[in-house]
Write the structure tokens for this entry.
Amino acid sequence: MVSTLGTYRSVIALTGPLLPVLSFFARLPVAMSQFGSVLLVSETSGSLTTAGIVGGTLSAGQVVFGPVLGRLADRHGQRPVVLAAAAVNALATAALVAGALTGLATPALAAVGAVAGASVPLIGPLARTRSVALAHRAKAGEGVVGAVHSLEGTLDEVSFVFGPALVGLAALVLHPAVALAGAAALVAVFGTAYALHPTAAVTAASPARGRAEGVRAPRQPRVVHAVRASLALQGAMFGACQAGIASLTARLGVPGQAGIVYAAMGVVSAGVGLALGALPARFGLRLRWRVATGAALVLSVPLLFTRTLWPLYAVVTVLGAAYAPHLITAFALTERVVAPLRLAESMAFAASSLVAGQAVALAVSGRLAESYGPAGAFAVAVGAAALCLAIALATRVPAARHPVPAAEPARAFIPAQRTGSVEGRGAPGGAAGYAGR
């Protein structure tokens, strides 16, 4: 326990205490926007079909343009890209609220939703990229880099628990428009603050990045594509569980419990993800990937036989323990094997794979739930888990990471000096991480 806390203290020493707070509130709108748009459009238009179309275009925009924003961040630095994306996203989300309230036609609403999705600032993937860059700049060891992934994964999980909960609460007490307007305000304020934080200097454009633009990018290793497929299947598990939980709670006459059940799964997932930082280095990424996907398969099978509310709570909550380890390991594998100059793009592609899998599975499993009951949707989750495990077993994972280039003296982020050492540091002495505001 003491060692784990020390490792996370080392992470905070790298980033500064403010950066995780800013990145958490800046990534909340991602978790709020799709659910909020569906609630708002369904209420103002009276049509679930229209709401589904708008929510679908929002997801499609994020899936298609997420890697593009990641590539721009790799080439030009995070600060200008996040500033521009946050501004466009805030305006597009506000326009979606105004359009829904004024009865804008479905095609126009869908177009606005697509812009809102395409301009999502990708704070989660970019925060991972920035924190990893800070760790490598400080010559931190694999234990600290692993703790970075665990912390970022936990922040993602917590945001995806609280985001929909905030939307539901605002919709219940006030109106869905308030929730979506709140998302626009959050991305405008905290997205901008994240972009302007001093640590953005570590991802600033550099001569090396500029030279890389004119060079043909190296082919991604096979493991990257395997990890993306695994994440898409993880997203499919999310979507199928959402549909199955909604179907079962509606059948039991307690549809309001669906969000609470799903939130319970997220809370457990976040807790296990944070604890993952305590695993010693001998539990390598290949082993973690296989154990996490195997656990997801074993723990998802009971969903097929769940018929009442309290067993649903128990099964779904326990299943959450397998989710964060898989997500954290998948992003850590991506960071290990891709070229550092393509890290933001690769992280964004990984996140987009997750969103795409969730959107497709939600549509498919929703129809299966209507035809065959909750077990039809849950069968999609079990099948996705089985495919995840098969991919993990069949994929060769490199033992060594992609070489990290030395920091350039010009334009390099110069961290604050402090005494002491970073736990797990690969080289003694030198500057520590960011220890500022």
